[in-house]
Amino acid sequence: MARINKNKLYIQDVTLRDGMHSVRHAYSLDDVRAIARALDRARVDAIEITHGDGLTGSTFNYGFGAHDDAEWIAAVADECKFSRVTILLLPGIGTVHDLKHAHDAGARSVRVATHCTEADVSRQHIEAGRELGMDTVGFLMMAHMAPVEKLVEQALLMESYGAECVYVTDSAGALLPGQYAERVRAVRGALKPETEIGVHTHHNLTLGVANAVAGVEAGAVRVDASLAGMGAGAGNAPLEALIAVLDRMGIETGCDLHMLMDAADDLVRPLQDRPVRVDRESLSLGYSGVYSSFLRHAENASKLYGVDTRDILAELGKRRMVGGQEDMIVDVALDILKQRKAEAAE
Description:
The chain is α/β, with parallel strands linked by helices and about 350 residues long. The chain is built from 13 helices and 8 strands.
């Protein structure tokens, strides 16, 4: 299994977790196996696999998954000879009990994800991950929504609970490279030297790769990306493009670029029922600072109520909605519709 080499970046693929949003959490087991096999052969350090919203995210609110998390995890674990099998867990959705089941199914790394101001809810799960002997990571989502000082404070909490790495996560793809670098640099400067820093970027403002590079230059050593950018909104930093850029920069990743190119084009793009790209809707996510996984929910509400998706996303941004508030998207669409009817009646 992969172990962290201090002389190279640690590359984590999220095609099978963040990419779940792009296919409405409907990857088949055959799809999962084929993608995991390709990533493992390309020597990607870690492969993340769960429902898009983490362990036990398969619900009415977030969308039901085609398979149970344990089935997906076991399918990936069966294919991995090199890559570390990783899971995402959001406290309040996944439990310590779920974490133990995931470990039994083959997961060896866990990322405990919270909103960027709510790290205090991660303690139990981070401690449980360490007790299981897992590579245990804190994952601060929607990093654009907190001042730098607050983000540092929350990262220190996760480190104090036992996190071996803390991620600065731009879930909305809303940060500019300088803003991202500032956050990573501040967190790197505050944590212990042995605590690693990770970056997870989205492409809603077309900055997925640029922000990942900015994060690396600011001190991050773990980097997330996905094949063909498969992920929520306009997707994540495209893995094959990121590896090409890092290679041009002379930064070692250990990944096989041509294998990743082939996997992106031959395995992943054919699965997209909605192109993962920067378009008027996904661009609106980054511009308004909205959680990337809200996109398809907002598009559904738009079709139901005849309200422009961009208007829904802009209002969600104004209200500072965060992950877990997907049920409020319909309320926002109805509020907009009500306001327009009132204006028309005047």
